[in-house]
């Protein structure tokens, strides 16, 4: 099924993305998967109920997807424990999963931030030195904190704690970290602008943060010390209820392109979409001043259409973008489907 709006494609847009010829979902839960959980001190079916909200990156000619998996320890949105699994594909469409999660709440330094909600919603980039950097949400069922982990192989991860650990924003609700990247000889790597790495983050309004090492981040503030908002909601649009970062942003010839997720408000939003629907748009930021918004798409470029995108755990309908990988001249955009599955759309 083709799911693009050709009328809105501008010179700076990524895409158009199509789901034609793709059999979605490409990933889903597996009730049989089990591993010995260091938090529960017992075997758990870590991807029993849902597998969704994926990060993606290319390594050695393969696409790797890091996905959020929910066990069967609870019910309702946010009522399970989440862990992050890893799947590998040679074509971006057919995947083989690892049997155990690669990032999960354990008896480690992340305990106070991750028990018992877990590790959620990853995004992943490659550092210029080849190391992989994951941003994810640490959820202790009280406060969501954007956190960072690093790896040399995508399997073994070192947790570094909250991204804003050394700032006054440590106890501010934070999630969805989209680090600015660039294409370098076929690799998508983190990009420095003005001597710093940049990241869009937030849920509701998007903010911006900078770092010198991709681990320790400093949110940018205005003259009053308040968070510097860079992207906000719009009345009458698909993003009327909230905006939230999508995959890592991409620095190109026109500026920085950020695919972002928008939630529709049934009363003040897009009347063609049900209340609460998540769809995705694109925004363009200044290549020299990443906090400066230049433009954004007038409407979504992808929305819930397939059955599993409307009838999963989040029945209002969800296409939630989080992963963008480059393989053999094509962009593979991975997204969560109704908080239950993983889908993909491709731009040639």
Alpha carbon gap, first and last residue:
16 Å
Strand content: 35-45%
Extended strand count: 26
Structural class by helix and strand composition = mainly beta
Which stretches are poorly predicted, pLDDT < 50 over at least 5 residues?
A: 1-7
Give me the strand/helix succession: EEEEEEHEEEEEEEEEEEEEEEEEEEE
* Spatial extent as radius of gyration: 18 Å
Shape: globular
Summarize the main sheet: 8 strands, mixed
Q: How many helical elements?
A: 1
Mean of the pLDDT scores? 96
Helix share bin: under 10%
Verbal overview:
The chain is mostly beta strands and about 350 residues long. About 0% of the residues lie in helices and about 40% in strands. It is built from one helix and 26 strands. It has one helix at about 110-115, and strands at about 35, 40-45, 50-60, 60-70, 80-90, 95, 120-125, 130-140, 145-150, 155-160, 180, 180-185, 185-190, 190-195, 195-200, 205, 205-210, 220, 240-245, 250, 255-265, 280-285, 295, 320-325, 330-335, 340-345. Strands 12, 13, 16, 19, 20, 21, 22 and 23 form an eight-stranded mixed β-sheet that branches. Strands 11, 14, 15, 17 and 18 form a five-stranded antiparallel β-sheet that branches. Strands 3-4-5-6 form a four-stranded antiparallel β-sheet, with no helix packed on it. Strand 14 and strand 15 (about 195-200) form a beta hairpin. It is globular, with a radius of gyration of 18 Å. The two termini are about 15 Å apart. The model is unreliable at about 1-5 (pLDDT under 50).
């Amino acid at each position: 099924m083709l799911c693009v709006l050709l009328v809105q494609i501008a010179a700076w847009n990524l895409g158009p993305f199509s789901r034609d010829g793709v059999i979605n979902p490409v990933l889903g839960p597996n009730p049989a998967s089990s591993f010995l959980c260091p938090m529960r001190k017992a075997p758990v079916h870590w991807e029993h109920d849902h597998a969704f909200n994926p990060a993606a990156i290319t390594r050695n000619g393969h696409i790797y997807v890091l996905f959020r998996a929910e066990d069967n320890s609870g019910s309702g949105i946010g009522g399970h424990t989440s862990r992050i699994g890893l799947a590998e594909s040679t074509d971006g469409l057919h995947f083989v999963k690892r049997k155990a999660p690669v990032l999960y709440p354990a008896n480690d330094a992340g305990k106070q931030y991750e028990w018992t909600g877990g590790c959620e919603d990853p995004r992943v980039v490659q550092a210029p030195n080849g190391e992989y950097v994951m941003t994810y949400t640490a959820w202790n069922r009280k406060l969501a904190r954007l956190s960072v982990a690093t790896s040399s192989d995508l399997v073994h991860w070192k947790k570094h704690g909250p991204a804003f650990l050394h700032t006054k924003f440590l106890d501010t609700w934070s999630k969805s970290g989209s680090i600015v990247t660039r294409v370098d000889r076929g690799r998508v790597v983190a990009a420095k602008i003005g001597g710093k790495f940049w990241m869009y983050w937030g849920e509701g309004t998007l903010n911006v943060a900078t770092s010198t090492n991709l681990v320790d981040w400093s949110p940018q503030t205005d003259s009053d010390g308040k968070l510097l908002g860079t992207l906000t909601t719009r009345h009458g649009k698909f993003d009327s209820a909230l905006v939230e970062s999508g995959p890592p942003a991409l620095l190109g010839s026109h500026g920085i392109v950020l695919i972002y997720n928008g939630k529709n408000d049934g009363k003040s939003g897009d009347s063609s979409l049900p209340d609460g629907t998540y769809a995705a748009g694109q925004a363009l930021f200044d290549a020299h001043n990443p906090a400066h918004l230049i433009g954004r798409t007038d409407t979504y470029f992808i929305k819930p259409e397939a059955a599993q995108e409307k009838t999963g755990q989040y029945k209002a309908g969800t296409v939630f973008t989080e992963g963008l990988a480059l393989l053999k001249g094509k962009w593979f955009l991975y997204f969560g489907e109704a908080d239950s599955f993983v889908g993909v759309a491709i731009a040639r």
